[in-house]
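User: quick one, sequence for these tokens?
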């Protein structure tokens, strides 16, 4: 594989630079200014005269959506970034990246808008699921693997959001006040590590401000730190609609303003140069970086692309399943409450014998093995988080699908138990819809199939034959086959006129106007509105139509058609649902309850208000656990939730947002074909009130990071509070004995033995703890911090040794007085651990500068 990973300049780099310079020399100011501005939602203009094709970008990070925001252009959906981080394996992240590059190439995408490497500062952060960890080192390592993988495939990455975009509240305006030390040691650290180790071709400037300057104009962080100190040579693109001014952004280091066609660059930039506010050579610098990116991804004629030999093709389904299995974190696994002889409840063995690591073959029904599967998310799996991270896979394996396939007939029952989806959601199961686009005179301009009830067309992404200028109405029309009898609710999302017809009756005719939200994406992702209810019968098809008169906003920065037909199935008496689930649980050997958040809880665009599971799910778990001692709870959320019943159930498996193959992976893990491989990348609190850092709401426009370097486990340890589950925690299906540790300031060698009965995988974690009083005085440091880790595998009885390098940076702090990294000599304990609190071996090292 030929990829540019080292810092040295190769002959290909030189050849590429020569072509870039020649191309730059041929452009006039107009063309240059145009190239720095999006031509539409996702691309830059091509310039045929210099052999430059249009550069296409796409979200990220769990799949490649492409330039369409609809389900008719499917993409492989991998598990959420929290899940990828939970595998603690940069090589796995690299393979995930390679798959995404493969997907990007298939969809004509040159640059992926990912990974997200902001930190889990507060558990309330709305995009928590989309970032990796509370720890900057783990984040940097996973991000490095991911960037390397994507770029191995010749596709660019855009590491985002630079920087301190750690929450969503007032994200367009908030000024995050962060002192230099936490900024360097925590928030900038993953970006710095990724720039040094993986040389990303792009960075995305965040919406927010940091210390008084909006990030798209942050000269110090973008020009001096990112480019100056770290030597970043890629392009900086604004987050979507984040660029605020022409001169400020260009001088502040922003190369590309997205999306278009209306941006602060283009004509406005030509005018700024004409007025003498911006020197043309500053424009040239930005254009050079964009051309370099184009050359790297192979769309500038004559320039050698960065990658000439692609990695071997990957099987997306298999990889999605593998990542999911490797990411599930088993936080609790107690003995079976029946005749299981103290053996842990997981893995579930169908014939009552000890687990041997092989998959149940599914042919011979087990003697004792029956499972009651319970929960709305067990049937309608929640596989990803909301917002720009959404992709549309062509199929989803729910837990119900996965277990049905893996178990013999008659071994599984399903009951709903509790339905947290109390709000209308995009019409989905049972709907067959087509979008018909018409002009004002009623002429049909074009049609498109819409697998779900959501229409999201932005920029040039319209059905064939349709233009924004001519488009007047979009009618979603087709049939709906109810899964249940009862009263069905229908509604709409979006702005504009709506006429809703169900089974020939017009049940709503009205309009929705623009609200007062300052978030320009509100119209896109905005709230649901119920419009009508209708009594329908299971299995009986009805005609359905939603006629939408497109809401056109003059001078809108993005021309978009965005609305949804929404649906909510019949409501049930919640007590009765729980009672039925309890009955099913009582009749089975094992109860598996899947609990989840909803899209209205975890999504881009807002932070969470609390960490509770929505609806009656806590009551459900308690009732099921009281009825069946072998209750396993699967927690299908992207980020921490409170589990108030955690001591009452036999096992708890965190499955994150597990991607399209989540249900298959879940069957693998529950039934013992695979071990749950994950370790917590973030601390799980007992209750929100215990979390040392949680507030995300700015006061007078400012959010002060007053906790300094104490976030995550650094803060929990300082506060002395015990979380539900500590950072790094996660059980497998075998046991490990840590035998020896040999430590020096530059590495730790750990020997450990698999003392259990099956082959297993362990994540060896190395923490560095300064011995109190044995270092010169410094500002307060955490009790310990993660300094290295490595996954190892061993067969039952086998002993393995792993060498984990320690970096100089692990012994450094950012000295605010000198504005530089400072090595802190002294005595440190090197700790080999299974989690930040389960430390098995330690050794002392003397660190000298
Ligand atoms: C998000 C970015 C995303 C962009 C394009 C923004 O709202 O913050 O992460 O890449 O939209 O969808």
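Assistant:
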């Amino acid at each position: 594989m030929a990829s540019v990973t080292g810092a040295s300049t190769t002959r290909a780099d030189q050849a590429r630079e020569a072509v870039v310079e020649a191309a730059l020399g041929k452009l006039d100011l107009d063309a240059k200014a145009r190239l720095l501005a999006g031509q539409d939602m996702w691309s830059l203009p091509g310039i045929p005269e210099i052999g430059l094709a249009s550069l296409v970008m796409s979200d990220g990070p769990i799949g490649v959506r492409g330039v369409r925001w609809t389900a008719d252009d499917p993409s492989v959906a991998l598990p959420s970034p929290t899940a990828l981080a939970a595998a603690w394996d940069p090589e796995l992240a690299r393979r995930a990246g390679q798959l995404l590059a493969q997907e990007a190439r298939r969809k004509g995408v040159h640059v992926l808008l990912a990974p997200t490497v902001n930190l889990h500062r507060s558990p309330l952060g709305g995009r928590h699921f989309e970032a990796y960890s509370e720890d900057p080192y783990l984040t940097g390592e996973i991000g490095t693997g991911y960037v390397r993988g994507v770029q191995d495939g010749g596709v660019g990455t855009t590491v985002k959001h630079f920087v301190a975009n750690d929450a969503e509240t007032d994200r367009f305006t908030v000024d995050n006040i962060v002192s230099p030390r936490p900024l360097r040691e925590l928030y900038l650290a993953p970006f710095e590590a990724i720039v040094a180790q993986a040389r990303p071709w792009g960075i995305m400037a965040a919406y927010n401000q940091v210390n008084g300057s909006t990030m798209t104009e942050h000269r110090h962080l973008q020009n001096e730190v990112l480019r100056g100190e770290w030597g970043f040579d890629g392009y900086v693109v604004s987050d979507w609609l984040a660029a605020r001014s022409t001169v400020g952004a260009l001088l502040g280091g922003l190369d590309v303003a997205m999306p278009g066609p209306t941006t602060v660059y283009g004509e406005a930039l030509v005018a700024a140069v004409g007025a003498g506010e911006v020197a043309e050579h500053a424009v040239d610098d930005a254009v050079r970086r964009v051309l370099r990116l184009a050359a790297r991804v192979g769309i500038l004629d004559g320039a050698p692309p960065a990658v000439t030999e692609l990695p071997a093709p990957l099987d997306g389904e298999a990889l999605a399943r593998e990542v999911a299995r490797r990411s599930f974190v088993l936080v609790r696994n107690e003995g079976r409450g029946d005749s299981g002889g103290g053996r842990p409840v997981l893995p579930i063995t169908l014939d009552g014998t000890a687990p041997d690591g092989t998959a149940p073959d599914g042919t011979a029904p087990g003697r004792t093995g029956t499972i009651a599967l319970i929960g709305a998310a067990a049937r309608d799996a929640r596989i990803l988080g909301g917002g720009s991270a959404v992709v549309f896979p062509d199929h989803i394996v729910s837990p119900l699908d996965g277990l049905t396939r893996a178990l013999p007939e008659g071994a599984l029952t399903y009951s709903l138990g509790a339905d947290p989806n109390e709000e209308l959601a995009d019409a989905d199961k049972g709907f067959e819809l087509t979008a018909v686009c018409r002009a004002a005179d009623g002429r049909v301009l074009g049609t498109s199939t819409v697998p779900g009830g959501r229409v999201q067309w932005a920029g040039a992404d319209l059905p064939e034959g349709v233009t924004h200028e001519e488009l007047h109405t979009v009618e979603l029309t087709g049939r709906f086959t109810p899964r249940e009898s009862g009263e069905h609710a229908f509604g709409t999302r979006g702005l504009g006129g709506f006429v809703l017809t169900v089974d020939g009756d017009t049940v709503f005719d009205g309009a929705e106007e623009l609200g007062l939200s300052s978030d320009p994406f509100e119209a896109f992702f905005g709230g649901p509105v119920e419009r009508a209810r209708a009594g329908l019968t299971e299995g009986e098809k009805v005609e359905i139509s939603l006629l939408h008169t497109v809401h056109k906003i003059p001078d809108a920065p993005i021309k978009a058609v965005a609305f949804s037909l929404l649906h909510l199935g019949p409501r049930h008496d919640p007590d009765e649902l729980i009672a039925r689930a309890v009955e099913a649980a009582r009749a089975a050997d094992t109860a598996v309850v899947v609990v989840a958040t909803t899209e209205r809880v975890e999504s881009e665009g807002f932070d969470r208000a609390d960490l509770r599971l929505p609806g009656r799910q806590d009551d459900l778990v308690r009732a099921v656990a009281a009825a069946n001692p072998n209750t396993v709870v699967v927690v299908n959320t992207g980020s921490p939730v409170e589990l108030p019943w955690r001591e009452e159930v036999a096992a708890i498996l965190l499955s994150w947002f597990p991607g399209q193959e989540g249900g298959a992976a879940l069957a693998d893990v529950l039934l013992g074909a695979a071990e749950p491989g994950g370790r917590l990348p973030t601390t799980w609190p007992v209750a929100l009130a215990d979390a040392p850092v949680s507030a995300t709401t700015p006061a007078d426009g400012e959010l002060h990071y007053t906790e300094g370097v104490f976030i995550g486990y650094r803060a929990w340890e300082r506060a002395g509070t015990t979380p539900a589950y500590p950072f790094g925690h996660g059980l497998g299906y075998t046991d490990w004995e840590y035998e020896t540790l040999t430590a020096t300031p530059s590495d730790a060698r750990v020997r450990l033995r698999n003392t259990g009965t099956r082959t297993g995988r362990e994540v060896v974690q190395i923490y560095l703890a300064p011995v109190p009083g044995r270092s010169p005085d410094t500002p307060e440091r955490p009790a310990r911090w993660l300094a290295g880790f490595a996954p190892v595998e061993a067969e039952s009885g086998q002993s393995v040794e792993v060498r984990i390098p320690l970096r100089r940076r692990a012994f450094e702090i950012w000295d605010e007085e000198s504005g530089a990294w400072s090595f802190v000599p002294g005595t440190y304990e090197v700790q080999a651990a299974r989690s930040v609190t389960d430390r098995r071996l330690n050794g002392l090292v003397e660190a000298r500068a």
